[in-house]
Amino acid sequence: MGAGPELDFRSCLFLSCWLGEGTAGLRSSWVLLEEKRNGLGKTERGGLSEEKDTRWKMLSSGVCTSTVQLPGKVVVVTGANTGIGKETAKELARRGARVYLACRDVQKAELVAREIQMMTGNQQVLVRKLDLADTKSIRAFAKRFLEEEKHLHILINNAGVMMCPYSKTADGFEMHIGVNHLGHFLLTHLLLEKLKESAPSRVVNVSSLAHHLGRIHFHNLQGEKFYQSGLAYCHSKLANILFTQELARRLKASRPSSSFYPAR
Ligand SMILES: NC(=O)c1ccc[n+]([C@@H]2O[C@H](COP(=O)([O-])OP(=O)(O)OC[C@H]3O[C@@H](n4cnc5c(N)ncnc54)[C@H](OP(=O)(O)O)[C@@H]3O)[C@@H](O)[C@H]2O)c1
């Protein structure tokens, strides 16, 4: 099945990532990021710059050409009531998967579930409460999920906070690292056996190019000594990458995990 017109660019890139097609299923076409050298550089679309003094980074973009259908597959998408998570959940439902919208605001998520059901004709779009800023909620989500589902084929750790004022999770972690990384870390850990049993399975951690600016400050992990909201976001996105790499290394024998960078 080709990508529907309503499937946005980031979801296309994302879907190719977790369908395991890497960049092969994508048309490389769009220069998205420039790295300036000597303060010079310009943004260009349509191909790689020839200029020697500018180093370009190119990401692949385009439509997801995969025709994979997912009947019988079980998927969890965190933060699926809006943005990338919602678009992703919609496309997965369109492909026939049973999709769990793991969201902190159940009312909002129920509306989205109904919308996706209507748009895709797939009634197996389910809402479950998950607040990644509270480990009790994460444990409760996992417990219920493990009780009611025999399999988990795809876990998409998508939810995220960005540049919020200094605040802490219920367990006292700085909000960015707590929600974006630690919350998903715990969730993945709790669901890992189920993922292994369901192999081939996959974990997708939604990171960001912002991770390039991240540094893990172990002496100030909770931002108590100093705090800058943008950097806190970057650190958490770097943590996503490091987590993904280590998870992939540990799961080498079963299935690799994936990291995904949306289009910005
Ligand atoms: N958009 C981009 O251009 C971009 C670029 C790079 C990376 N990303 C990454 O892509 C992911 C999704 O981004 P987006 O743009 O789609 O963001 P978004 O539209 O702001 O959606 C974020 C989602 O995360 C949920 N969320 C926030 N805190 C949560 C918590 N404590 N527990 C459970 N869910 C929580 C939100 O729920 P509520 O609706 O209840 O707030 C929402 O569903 C994020 O990880 C982000 O870092 C996005």
Automatic annotation (TrEMBL):
<comment type="similarity">
    <text>Belongs to the short-chain dehydrogenases/reductases (SDR) family.</text>
</comment>
<protein>
    <submittedName>
        <fullName>Retinol dehydrogenase 11 isoform X5</fullName>
    </submittedName>
</protein>
<dbReference type="Pfam" id="PF00106">
    <property type="entry name" value="adh_short"/>
</dbReference>
<dbReference type="InterPro" id="IPR002347">
    <property type="entry name" value="SDR_fam"/>
</dbReference>
<dbReference type="InterPro" id="IPR036291">
    <property type="entry name" value="NAD(P)-bd_dom_sf"/>
</dbReference>
<keyword id="KW-0560">Oxidoreductase</keyword>
